[in-house]
Design goal:
Length: 184
Amino acid sequence: MAKNVYIFLADGFEDIEGLAVVDLMRRAGIRITTVSIMDKKEVVTSHHIALLADSLFDETDFLDADMLVLPGGMPGTKYLGEYEPLARLLTQFDQKGGKIGAICAAPTVLASLGLLEGKKATAYPSCMDGLKGAEKSLEKVVTDGNITTSRGLGTAVDFALSLIEQLLGKEKADEIAESVVYTR
């Protein structure tokens, strides 16, 4: 049975952090849906690349979600953090033990919701202070329970492969890494 992942995009998200996850998950056979929170499908990345999201937040049913993912970047992370419907979804998903991933500045969104309380987590260096309640780590990727966090653009492939491993196993993650000539 295919796994379903939703990644949330807002104007100003970090290109590589979002698209590396989408690309590698699709290569792994995971159904990953890009979801705009901007009330329009066109989203503009932090480096001014316009792209079309697969769906709009308010038109999407997340009942089949196996994982929710937040890319970082500014002001994308700010918009994600301010979007109340996403905050409610993340909180409810976490309460059910659903897997959540966040990279770069985006772990601060999870911290602001209290989802990192007592958990080990990481983020972009200048965002580490925003990990209130978390045990801060300098590792590239940190998984504690149902939440995975990562440091930034330079760790985006590691982050994506970690998420694939959680959903489909180490063998599949290794296969994808090898297929893109990535050494883990």
